[in-house]
Amino acid sequence: MSAKRPLKRQDSIHGEEMPVRDSSKKSLVGVIDDGTKTVRFVIFEAERSEELASYQLDKTVVQPQEGWYEQDPLEILHHIRECAEKTFEQLTELGYSKEDIVALGITNQRETTIAWDKFTGELLHPAIAWNDIRTDSTVDAILAKVPDRNKNYLKHICGLPISPYFSALKMRWLKDNIKAVRRASRDKRLLFGTVDAWIMWNLTGGVQDGLHVTDVTNASRTLLMNLETLNWDPMLCRLFGIHRDSLPQIRSSSEVYGVVKDGSVLDGIRISGILGNQQSALVGQNCLQAGQAKNTYRSGCFLLYNTGTRRVHSAHGLVTTLAYRLGPRAPPVYALEGSVAVAGEAMKFLRDNLKLIKDVAKDTEHIAGQVFSTGDVYFVPAFSGLYAPYWRKDARGIICGLTAFTTKNHIIRAALEAVCFQTRDILEAMNKDCGMPLSKLHVDGRMTSNDLLMQLQADLIGIPVLRAHSWDMSALGVAMVAGHAAGVWAADTWRHHATPADTFLPTATDDDRDARYTKWKMAVQRSLGWATTKKSIAMTGQAKRKCSMSAQSFDVCLSRENSILEPLVENVIEDDTLIEELIQYSARKFSIFVPLKSPKDEHTILDDADYYMSKNESDYMCHYSQTKKKLHTNWGTIEEIIENDPEIIFENDSPIVVEPVREGDDNVGADSFKKQLDKAPSIVSHMRNKMTHTSQT
To answer: CB 3.0-4.6 Å disulfide test: which of 198, 214, 328, 507 passes with 248?
Structure first.
């Protein structure tokens, strides 16, 4: 809970008048912040980045089976109302009241999926959390329907790979496995939604005409939304078997959706902003220009790179997602995202499973800081597979490089470095997709309080890391978009607002960071292929092999004279079931053995042990720091790098860097313009050549 502070009047930012409700009070914006493990209610003063008041409660996460994670949606609603009541009590002490809150925003854990009855409001199943992997078999069934079983087949439509991570697979699993969900779907009573839709429906009346809406950022995480039309795609809905009537209406991230009318202390407040928590952190970090990026370190790790109004389709394992849309008529802003399944969870694993530490926040930094390196130990925390950029659900966690001198200090430090290496994996992919390395990385999340982790991150990516003073920037981001819709928070003013941050500069050499990253890639390679879950018939091709076996056995049976099976021939030719019974009977009667060479279901590292054993480190060498892309930085001018960000415009998949114009710059003019054109795509170069030819004639 944030500390209370005395009221101060500050009527302007950058010389502009702040919108106020009267001469003594600023307008307030409330935020519902639903995370994976906590629910918070936060209140901000308009256009201020500091929390005025807040309260939070922990949530219950149930794990009924290994890899399954469930939450109680009713507990989420209860915590929202209780946190709001506690926060309003603080407001009274600060001289404010509920009437000063002019807008309410919702930010939420993404991909977590809920199913309920729209006529009774009854929950049909606990919420399936975003990191739940129960849908492995559902993924196999969907992949069997797409050409070449290509997990990236739908990326040109929705920007996402076919993975257990996303909501459509969770919806389909519920329909396939939960009778109440199937029955509700048949009776046209079923509503599906991510957590924001569940909260919105209940706050705005529930069964009494509650609004079933979501925003573009949450909808873009379902595998069902078309990135171009910003609506549910009919082909995708048909592929996953989800009826559009059960899905919420897709709206922008910043508009007045409705008014709270659930009988709680929030009654009467307008809801005017919705953002998925990672997109909200991007806005809160003020990464509103193309080419800016942020990384959030929580249970997982989420790096978003703003690509502006241009959709950049990744060829290197990232997902294309909506960053935000500031109004129904505003253009959508897109982002590339890389998601890491395990970040903070790796530290909790060291505490709860291995008993190496007692306090995650204190011990990880203190104990890991007692050694100067990991001693060549590498920890790949792929407890439930790897997300971006690998998307390998068969990966499992490993600790490698152990020697007789390895201590728990080395293992803990290796766990911290694993978070940093996974971040670099994503930056590698982003550099290849966008062709433009970042000049700095904004960071937030609880893990960023670890100074050692932040320094390791700067060392391993080779660029400055800017840590926000507030560990949770997601609440601030949705407060901005909600206030923007209510007219009390100007987006243009926020765009130029300087967010306070601590800066960590890299100290490692290029050779050192590349050598360590090379061994990380070797460790990742060794983590693949460990999970050997039985695949469905559709995925393994057993159905075809059964037909082939049936035909062979049937031919053998017919070739025997006086076979007792001959009278059955005419009845079984078109019936696979009878053919199968025929095979079993014939094999039992005549001891017929039909050999069948079955190809391996999946090619993994375990199939090529000799091959990988013969590889050298140089075979894994990365190309992250190629000479032509290296960022040559004079760290004496770090202030200039941080203060003057170039904006990157994506045109025809080729990024153009627009450098800021500084006063007194002698190069501004025709020569400078010609140099900028030299960097432009071929179409602009063609126009330049035509202009030059015309001027000469």
So the answer is: 214
**Count of C-beta atoms within a 10 Å radius of residue 580:** 16
Residue 196 inside a domain? The answer is yes
Contact between 260 and 271 under an 8 Å Cβ cutoff? The reply is: yes
Domain that holds residue 573: 542-559+569-594
> Vertex 295, ends 294 and 300: CA angle to 5°?
155
* Same domain for 222 and 113: yes
Of 123-132, 267-276, 667-676, the one with minimum mean pLDDT is 667-676
Given 284, 318, 333, the domain boundary residue is: 284
Residue 583 to residue 590: CA distance in whole angstroms? 11
Residues 589, 693, single domain; the answer is no
Strand order in the sheet with 333-340: 319-324, 333-340, 301-308, 293-297, 441-444, 465-468, 501-504
Return d(Cα 598, Cα 537) in angstroms, integer.
13
What is the number of residues in the chain?
A: 697
- Is 112:195 a contact under the CB 8 Å cutoff? yes
> Which residue reads 């959709």 in tokens?
311
589 and 665 inside one domain: no
3-state helix, strand, coil in the chain (%, to 5): 40, 20, 40
Which CATH number characterizes residue 246's domain? 3.30.420.40
Q: What angle do CA 378, 384, 385 make, to 5 degrees?
A: 70
Question: Which helix (H) or strand (E) segment is 127 a member of?
Answer: strand 123-128
Question: H/E element holding 99?
Answer: none
Cα(161)–Cα(14) distance, integer angstroms? 43
Considering only the C-alpha atoms of the chain, give the largest distance between any 2 of them, rounded to a whole number of Å: 105
Question: Which tens digits make up the pLDDT trace of 638-694?
Answer: 455 445 555 555 555 555 555 555 555 555 455 555 555 555 555 555 555 655 555
**Planar angle of CA 580, 584, 585, nearest 5 degrees:** 115
Same structural domain, 126 and 246: yes
- Residues 222, 79 share a domain: yes
**DSSP code per residue over 446-484:** GGGG-HHHHHHHHHHH-S-EEEESSS--HHHHHHHHHHH
Phi and psi for 399 in degrees, rounded to 5? Answer: -120, 120
Are 151 and 234 part of one and the same domain?
yes
3-class DSSP assignment, residue 342? coil
Question: Would you say residue 546 lies in a domain?
Answer: yes
The contacts of residue 3 (CB under 8 Å, 6+ apart) are: none
The contacts of residue 266 (CB under 8 Å, 6+ apart) are 30, 81, 84, 104, 203, 260
Residue 126 preceded by cis peptide, ω within 30: no
Task: Annotate 390-449 with three-state secondary structure.
Answer: CCECCCCCEEECCCCCCCHHHHHHHHHHHHHHHHHHHHHHHHHHHCCCCCCEEEECHHHH
Among 237, 262, 284, residue at a domain's last position: 284
Structural domains counted in the chain: 3
For the chain, the distance separating the N- and C-terminal CA atoms, rounded to the nearest angstrom, is: 72
Structure tokens that stand for 460 in this block:
């391993």
Query: Helix axis angle, 451-461 relative to 360-368, nearest 10°?
Result: 60
Residues 108 and 199 in one domain: yes
Q: Tell whether 169 and 72 lie within a shared domain.
A: yes
Q: Alpha-carbon distance 303 to 297, whole Å?
A: 9
pTM: 0.72
- 326 has a pLDDT exceeding 80: yes
Residue 544's region, left for phi above 0, alpha for psi from -120 to 50, else beta, is: alpha
Q: What is the pLDDT of residue 79?
A: 94
The answer as to whether 378 is a domain residue is no
User: In this structure, is residue 445 part of a structural domain?
Assistant: no
